[in-house]
Every structure is written in C-alpha cells, then in structure tokens.
Amino acid sequence: MANQEHLQQLIQGSEEWNQWRTQNSAATIDLSYADLSQRKLIAANLQTADLTGANLIGTTLTEANLHQANLTQADLSGADLNQVNLVQANLAQANLLGADLSASNLQQANLARATLNRSDLSEANLSEVDLSAASLVGAELSRVSLQAANLQSAYLKRADLQRSDLSQCNLVQADLTDARLLNTNLDNANLNQAILKGARLNRATLVNANLTEANLAGATLLGADLTGADLTGANLQASNFSGANLNQANLSGQDLSSLNFTGASLKGTILQNADLTQAILTEVDLTAADLTGAKLPGELAFSQEEC
Fold first, then answer.
1. What are the transmembrane regions (predicted)?
2. Which of 7, 16, 123, 218 could form a disulfide with 198 if both were Cys (CB 3.0 to 4.6 A apart)?
C-alpha cells in the first residue's frame, strides 16, 4: 500500500510535490494502489515511483515525468498523458482505455497485455516498446514511431497507423483487421501469420517484410512497395495490388488468379508454380520474373512459349 506521507505530499499539488522530491531525492516513492483519480498532477516528478495498481482514472498528468515508473496494473483510463515521459516505464497489464498519450515518449516502455483501446497515441515515441498481446482496438497511432517495437499477438483492429514508422517491428500473429496503414513504413517488419484482412496498405512500404502465412484477404495495397517481401503461404484472396512494386518479392506457389495487378512491377519476382490464370496483368512489368511452372493467362502463356 502507498506510503501515506508520500501520498499526502503529492495531493498538495505538483509544485509542492516537486519541491519536496528535490529535498528528498533519496526517497523511494511508494504510491502503490493509491487513489489519485481525477487529480491534476501536471508536470509532476514521478520518476521511478511505484504506482502499482494505482487509480489514475481521468487524472491529468500532462508533461509529467514517469521515467522508469512502475505502473503495473494501474488504471489510467481516460487519463491525460499528453507529452508525458514514460521512457522505460512498466505499464504491463495497465488499463489505458481512452487515454490521451499523444506526443508522449514511451521508448522501451513495457506495455505488454495493456489495454489501450481507443487511446490517442498520435505522434508518440513508441520505439522498442513492448506491446505484446496489448489491446489497441481503434487506437489512434498515426505518425507514431514504432520502430523495432514488439507487437506480437497485439490486437490492432481498426487502428489508425497511417504515416507511422513500423520498420523492423515484430507483428507476428498480430491482428490488424481493417487497420489503416496508408503511407506506413513496414520495412523489414515481421508479419508472419499476421491478420491483415481488409487492411488499407495503399502506398505503404513493406520492403523485405516477412508476410509468410499472413492473411491479406481483401486488403488494398495500391502503390505499395513490397520489394523483396516474402508472401509465401499468405492468403491473398480478393486483395488488390494495382500499381504495387513487387520486384523480387516471393509469390511462389500462390493462388493469384483473378487478382488485380494493373500497372504493377513484377521485375525479378519469384512466381514459381503460381496460379495467374484470370489475373489482371494490364501494363504489368514481368522482366526477369521467375515463372517456372506458373499457370498463366492464355495470351501471356502463348507469348512465353514463343520466347
């Protein structure tokens, strides 16, 4: 339970609290399970504080310093965490439902299994953060840095990830159903077995991404850059690759029949044993593509025989 002296000092207000912390810099702050709901703790120095299980519902923590704070199982639903420093903070299993975390710094924070549904994380720094198995349904994640973050098995249904950086991100088995990923950077991301049904990936960059066994059914990838991406075993039913760059991508053994590749570049693409019958290949560049054993539309198959 919370140290009552610490709690009484804090509820006096941020200015008094910060002054007290300066005078007691060696103190180990214990605010575990404290009820701080609806309080205004703007710019409060809560660095390294123990806030395990604390009630922070609707609390205003704008510009607060929570560097390395322990917020395990804390309830921060509806809290204002705008521009908060949460670097290396432990937010495992915390409830951040509807919280405002815009422009906050959460680099290397632990948010494993945290609830962030409908939270605003726009322009936040989430690089190297652990969001494994976290729930981010409908979360606002546009223009966010998630470089090298761990999102394995995370729930990102209907999340807005437009213009964000997810390069080198671990998205194995993540659920991105109906997510918005327009102009998003997913270079070198691991999307093995990820669910991307109906996701909008127009103009997204997926250079060298691992999409093996991913579910891209109904996804739109208009103008997306999939250079060197591995799509073996992926579900591509009804997906749209118009204008996409699939140079040197691996689509071997794929059922690509009836898919739209209008204006796409398939230079050097591996299409061994792929089924391209009835695929829309208008103005497609197949220079140096590996079509060994591939099933081709009648006209294209004839031209290949002539060569």
1. none
2. 218
